[in-house]
Every structure is written in C-alpha cells, then in structure tokens.
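Q: Hi! First time doing this. I have a protein sequence and I read that you can turn it into a structure. Is that right? Here it is:
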Amino acid sequence: MYFEVHPAINLLFTVHMEASELFDLPDSLPFEVAFSGSASPWQWIASISVALEDLSGNKDDLKCPIGLEMEGPVFIHPSVKLPAYGSIKGPVYIAEDCELRPGVFIRGNVIAATGSVLGNSCEFKNCLLLENAKVPHFNYVGDSILGNNTHLGAGVVCSNLRLDQTEVKIKDFSGKVHDTGLRKLGAFLGDFSEVGCNAVLNPGTVLGRRSIVLPTVSNGGTVAHGQVAKQ
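A: Yes, that's right. Below is the predicted 3D structure, encoded as structure tokens:
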C-alpha cells in the first residue's frame, strides 16, 4: 500500500538534491569511493565511467555461449548464468546473482549490483542498477540510475535526449531547477519505485522513493516520495 507524503515532509530536504535522498548505495558494490551520498544524482552518472576506469575483466575465464559477444573489459560474477545470445561491450561490471536474459544489449559503462535483472531485448548504456533492480522486458535504460528494488514494466523507456538536444535540467523536491551540464541524461528512480508497462520517463525524470508511475504514462519532472504519477 502506498500513501501520499505530506508536502511538509519534502521541506526537510536540502535545496541541493543529494543522491542519498533517492538511493542507498549497497555494501555489495566495491565502488563506494566513486559514489558519495552527498553528491547530486547527476554527478553519479559521470562517476560510472570513473568507477570502471581500472576494471579487471574476467570474460576469458567464463564459459561464454557461442551467440553471446563480449568485448572490452567485462567482469561478470561466476554465479551469473549467461544467456544464449546477446552483446556486451565493456567496461561492464555485473555482480553476483544477477540475471542476464537472451538478447540483452549492454553498450558500456554499466554497473549492475547483486540480484539485478537485465532482461530480454533490453538495452543498457552508461547506467547504474542497484541491488535487485529489475529491468525484465523490452526496456531502454540510458544515462540513468535505478535504485534498490526498483522495477520497470515491459516496454518502459528511460529517454535520455531532449527533442531540441539541449541541456537536461533537474527539478528537486522543493521545486528548484538545477543545471546539470549534461545533454544526455535519463531518469533517477529512488529505491522501491515502480514504473508500469509502456511508460516513458522523459529526460531528467526523478522518482522519489516508493513512488509509482502508472502504465502508458509519459512522465517528466519530479514525483515526490510515495506519490503516484498518472495521466
């Protein structure tokens, strides 16, 4: 059950949006130096490539199916069952007990924490999936961060480029608009948030913790913690 958060609660947050308002970085990820809770969520986007700069790959030690292509530095925990076909371009870090499904397309600078699902015919690029983030069917996740225990319904798109191709701006929970300096920026999904089938998250979308976007909704802007976005 989800409850609407009283507006006064949002005043507790600083006008500078911090990543810790949306996500808890899991202890299972070995990149705590790169992802400070006091940094802004969009600074975490730039930190993905920094975290993976010195990645030691293990793809040569894996029993790779013939139909699965890998190139560049790729680390996949041995507990991960590899799909029969797909494409993975490093740098990529896939933690233990993740699930890679057939047709997965990973385009580099991707980190997936323990228990994440990278689903069939899904595309990932420059993104961070925290623990148990589920991206199961026909999704696009680019320049985005999916919090712990988040879920995308089938066909959800995290759009990362405005139609006018200008800088993506972010609105925090107080309503203040922030310049990010980024032309490509997708969505930030707070821990335990849910997105319904065939919804589109427009560039710079922020979903608070335990928020919901209903199916087929085209959503932009910021959804407060615990609230529901509908058409």
